[in-house]
Amino acid sequence: MAGYVAIFLLFSLLDLGNRADPITSGLLALFVYSPIGAIGGAVLASWLVSRPGKSASNGGVARNSLKSLGVVALLCVAAAGTYLVYAYATATPWLNPNAANPLLVFEVRLPPGIAAPTSPQTIAIELQTDINTMPAELAPAGFRRDGEQAVITGEVELAFRTSHRQLAVNIEGQPSRIYPIGLSARAPHTPEFGTWRRLSDGSEIRYRAKWPGKS
Question: Is 0.85 surpassed by the pTM of this model?
C-alpha cells in the first residue's frame, strides 16, 4: 500500500500527466504506475520478512504476498471507479479535445416577402447551449435569394459536448428568432445539409456539423 500511494503522490506532485487530458492521465496513474509501486512494495516486504534470522517460512511469505497483492488489486479497482465518477462529473466536456473545434454550418431562409438584410452588420447570430454561448461568423458571399425568400449563411464553433443547442438570430428591424439545433451531443460530421426546419413565422433553417480536416 505504501508503494502504491507513494507512486501516485509522486505522479501527482511532479505533474507528470497530460494537462489537456487529465482523465487519461489519472487512469494511467491508477492502473499502471501506482500498481507498479504496489508490486515493488510487496516484493520489498517479502524480502524483509524472509531475510536470514526471520522465522517465517517461504510458503507463508508467498501466501501473504499474494494476499497483499489481491488487496492492492481490489483497492486499485475501487480507487479507479471513484476517480472515474469524479473525473467525468467535473471534467470540461470538450467536443474535440486537443484539436480545433468542429463547426455548425447553417443557412437561414427568411419568410417569403421579408426583405434581405441590407448589411451583415445588421445581423447578430449566436449559438446558445447549456454550457456557453458563441457568436457566429456570417458568410456574406453565400447570401442569396431562393425564390421569394432571402437566405443568410454562416458558421459557428461547436466547442462542447451537449445536446442542448439553439441558434439565436437577430436581424435589425425584425423579430428575434430561435432555431432548435437537433444535433446529438457528439455532433458527428455530415457532408451535406439536413432538411429545412420551419418555424411558425415561416422562416426555415438547415445545418450540418463540419469537423476539422473534412469537407
Answer: no
